[in-house]
Specification:
Elements lengths: L2 E9 L3 H12 L5 E4 L15 E3 L8 E2 H15 L2 E3 L3 E5 L4 E6 L2 E12 L3 E3 L2 H4 L9 E3 H10 L7 E5 L3 H12 L3 E6 L9 H8 L6 E2 L2 E7 L6 E6 L12 E4 L2 E4 L3 E3 L2 H5 L24 E3 L10 H21 L7 E5 L3 E5 L2 E2 L5 E7 L3 E10 L2 E11 L5 E5 L9 E7 L1
Helix pairs in contact: 1-2, 1-8, 4-5, 5-6
The protein binds flavin-adenine dinucleotide.
Amino acid sequence: MHTTEVDVAVIGGGPAGLAAVTSAKNAGAERVLLIERDERLGGILNQCIHDGFGTKVLGESITGPEYAQIYIDKLQEAKADFCLNTMVLDLTPEKVLTVCSAEGMRRIKAGAVVLAMGCRERTRGALGIPGPRPAGVYTAGVVQNYMNLRNIMVGRQVVILGSGDIGLIMARRLTLEGAKVECVAEILPYPSGLARNVVQCLEDFGIPLYLSTTVTRIHGTGRVKGVTLAQVGPKWGVKSGSQRFVECDTLMLSVGLIPENELSKKAGVALSPVTGGAIVDDWFQTSVPGIFSCGNVLHVHDVVDYVTLEAEAAGRSAARYAAAGSLPSSPIKVKPGQGVRYVLPYQISGEDAVEFSLRALAPEKDRHVVFRSNGQVIRKMRELMVAPAQMIRVKLRADRFPKEGEITVEVTE
Ligand SMILES: Cc1cc2nc3c(=O)[nH]c(=O)nc-3n(C[C@H](O)[C@H](O)[C@H](O)COP(=O)(O)OP(=O)(O)OC[C@H]3O[C@@H](n4cnc5c(N)ncnc54)[C@H](O)[C@@H]3O)c2cc1C
């Protein structure tokens, strides 16, 4: 099989991959290559025709395709190479990629690799909802793809299970296209999506959101005829007597995203059981030297701006690694404490300032985010409101870090 060599290979041409390859090239890596399996660059942004992208990095709210185009232009200005319709099938710890395209299979040996493969959606199979298997059960991303890219309407009377952002956005889109969205059912006692999407996509359109509620059965042969909704208790047990039938022809699922880390596993990259993404240091380097991870394949992001910022940093690190063959070690461990689901990065070098990303365990008002090292508070900041849906970002200067040991991060009163 033919083998080519590059300094930095980036897998996935969504916003993470676009930013990573451009910043690697601008940081001095000469031979960079972005590899995308789809027929166009932009990733999931191509189907996100609503606005709300770019408020942090561009200072304006634009649509997904507009946001992607800005970064495609930057890639072209930097003269970074890319290939489309090319799927990465295999990745080794030695950073050898096996790729497949219409021209056949080939190998690419890279000095450094950036993983930017994004996420896939959780499906009905993962939930195990009982009942027959009629047509009319879709994930929210598939509905978005059909409606926004193929002009296909998926149904007229819709129940949505899960209040993730994609589902909320598609509730509004379906309503604008003439469908009746009966309700959104959410098993948790609070919404999984951003507060702004609950207001703009449900409340503004009079769509009810039923919390602590799930779908316990799908009805219909041939096509969905309805679903059974039921209330759940604190441990998600169904409350007896709470079941009710809701007529609909479509059930749309918005029940979470799964980082696409199959290639990462092949390369031996250690993954976090909490995020499903790689364990990285402040260079965005994974447990395999020279392999970096960023964007939704690292952890599911709320807004794309942070994907871009993170990927730019990962691209710079990859260029540095490709040139030097190593990066300074990261001896300081970072651990989630009380009230924190996860915090990234998992370890830091202490060389430079670090912007930490963390998510709270539950929605709460008037909290403090506290960073401690060796028993001492090194940073404390007030948050009027925290919610698992909203990523918290905190930047710490290098002079706050201990030389070694551990930092814990808590969300407390
Ligand atoms: C419905 C929806 C609505 C959203 N709304 C907003 C919003 O209003 N505002 C906002 O800021 N953010 C929003 N986001 C979030 C934002 O779009 C994502 O955070 C962002 O797209 C993630 O970028 P990514 O590059 O990591 O992944 P993706 O965009 O998913 O890109 C990953 C790319 O990798 C490619 N790939 C995967 N595996 C391989 C392989 N083996 N070989 C080659 N290529 C591969 C895929 O084809 C894809 O193009 C929304 C997301 C969704 C899904």
